[in-house]
């Protein structure tokens, strides 16, 4: 069982990665990273090797000035997640889990039903599928926050089910693709930090993810 400090560390990590993956890179976010010295203060929860490799990439990336870094990251973000054309690292879960690589497939519907059943609201920028990796990390952060407040194990059980059934079956594959396809040290670091978070939660919560065929 995770203690309250570990829960808070994981919550902070999930919240940062939600913003890094869901929103287009901005001077504001990068300045927040620098002001909080994330390369030196990133919490020690998560899988250690990936975390260390990520922070070694992130520190020099953030040393670049915004005038150079932001345009480069926007190009990388667009190529990875937006298009046009085939996306280098699809950020939605359904194409990984559907043989025709469809958005809004059965896995998306199952996730939406899970969220509704547990009264979990997900705020999107537009009417898009709820199985975006960034949005799902926001759910992780929210449930960890609920557990910190309630301290009764209920939110942690919901989180465990959420991870086992809906995020872990494809999330680590996404991280691998993102790392391989990113052209910037920054997004390679974000991929590794996301993988560290997911693998750390899998180990620390003793989770057994569903074994599903992947099509990406």
Fold blueprint:
Layout (H helix, E strand, L loop, with lengths): L3 H19 L4 H9 L2 H4 L6 H15 L3 H17 L11 H4 L8 H12 L15 H18 L3 H28 L3 H20 L12
Task: Report what the structure shows.
The chain is an all-alpha fold and 216 residues long. It contains 10 helices and no strands. Helix 8 runs antiparallel to helix 9. The protein is globular, with a radius of gyration of 17 Å. The mean pLDDT is 96.
Précis, in short:
By secondary structure, the chain is mainly alpha-helical. It is built from ten helices and no strands.
Descriptive labels:
single chain; mainly alpha; globular
Structural class: mainly alpha
Query: What's the pLDDT, averaged over the residues?
Result: 96
The total count of helices amounts to 10
| Overall geometric form | globular
Largest sheet: none
Rg is 17 Å
Q: What is the CA–CA distance across the termini?
A: 33 Å
- H/E element sequence: HHHHHHHHHH
Question: Tally of extended strands?
Answer: 0
Strand percent estimate: under 5%
Q: Could you estimate the helical fraction of the residues in percent? A: 55-70%
Low-confidence stretches: none
